[in-house]
Specification:
This protein is mainly alpha-helical. It folds into two domains: about 30-65 and about 80-115, no CATH class; about 130-320, no CATH class. Helix content is about 70%, strand content about 0%. Helix 4 (about 85-115) packs across helix 5 (about 115-145) and helix 10 runs antiparallel to helix 11. The longest helix is centred in the last third of the chain and has 33 residues, at about 260-290. InterPro entries: TLC-dom, Translocation_assoc_membrane. Belongs to the TRAM family. It is found in: Membrane.
Length: about 325
């Protein structure tokens, strides 16, 4: 196992930790999680378990129909409780990839750069988040282009809830899982909490990282299940552009590439302000003006309509904080 081999890489052989002890789980959590993934995948191969295993892997709640009159029938996906199974599966998947990225990329860079223990933790955090935000920018940008949102901002609110609750495959994948990277947007932020244990994060670092993860977890989960997915998609795209620039610059800073880092932080300062301003404009435009024209006095979970004044105001205030 990769973590165990790394721990035994010194001159003298270290005693292996007791089976299923805390140290054993921490050292081998990547291998343990990959085994859990394989169990579910193998379940697809047998007729008796394939239906159950597919709930964890395959997007659920799909129908094929023309969403807009005179358009071609297409597969669309809705939200539901079975999505929780997918979130659990891809949370485990991201933990596995997290361990692989840490072992084969970030740890090697850390040893090459001779970082201190404090810098190693921050370097690893920025390395993981740089990869995640880079993927998110690319995927969300592709979806917005596919939905033509970049040329028609009214798509952020027109057709809510009927059109918005029926997501394209890519939009559902963005919120539930990314097939070739084995993680979900929601699951990524959910997986952060067990990672605090696996990475032995110091207590003074847990609180800010927990708050950061909880904010994203709440925002993405609420947007997904309340069918405000298009607005969330646009806001997350902007946020991840800013975060991607920040964490890339932070990596250069910890690598002591001072000139590049100095320029990067200047660029990030500008990007940060632009992103905050653009996010506020989109949130006000959608939640205060756009969706108000189709407001409902009460929540209608059957039809997926959560466009009440109270919910919109709460979301708007949360965004403008």
């Amino acid at each position: 196992m990769v973590e165990l081999r790394r721990s035994m890489g010194g001159r003298g052989k270290k005693t292996s930790p007791p089976f299923l002890s805390h140290e054993f789980i921490i050292q081998n959590h990547g291998d343990i999680m990959s085994c859990l993934l394989m169990i579910v995948v193998v379940g697809l191969l047998f007729q008796g378990t394939s239906a159950f295993a597919s709930i964890f892997i395959v997007p659920q709640y799909n129908d094929t129909f023309p969403l807009i009159p005179d358009s071609e029938p297409q597969a669309y996906y809705r939200t539901g409780l079975k999505d929780i199974a997918a979130v659990v599966f891809y949370t485990i998947g991201w933990i596995t990839l997290h361990a692989i990225l840490q072992e084969y990329v970030l740890d090697k860079l850390q040893r090459k750069l001779h970082l201190s223990k404090t810098k190693m933790s921050k370097f690893a955090e920025s390395g993981q988040l740089f990869v995640f935000t880079l993927y998110s920018v690319i995927h969300s940008g592709y979806i917005m282009h596919d939905l033509r949102m970049h040329i028609d901002l009214t798509k952020l609110w027109i057709g809510y809830p009927e059109i918005h609750r029926h997501m394209t495959l890519h939009l559902k994948l963005f919120f539930i899982f990314q097939a070739w990277l084995f993680y979900t947007l929601i699951a990524y932020w959910l997986h952060q909490f067990p990672e605090f244990y696996f990475q032995k994060v110091r207590k003074d670092e847990i609180q800010p990282r927990t708050l950061y993860s909880l904010i994203f977890l709440f925002f993405t989960t609420a947007a997904y299940f309340l069918n405000f997915n298009r607005l969330a998609l646009a806001l997350l795209f902007l946020e991840y552009v800013s975060q991607n620039v920040f964490h890339l610059t932070r990596l250069f800073h910890f690598a002591e590439k001072w000139n590049i880092a100095k320029t990067g932080f200047k660029i990030w300062n500008i990007v940060f302000v632009v992103v905050r301003l653009a996010s506020a404009v989109l949130a006000v435009l959608t939640l205060w003006y756009g969706l108000r024209s189709n407001e409902t006095p009460y929540v209608d979970p059957v039809n997926g309509n959560f466009n009440t004044a109270f919910i919109r105001q709460v979301l708007l205030l949360e965004k403008l904080k």
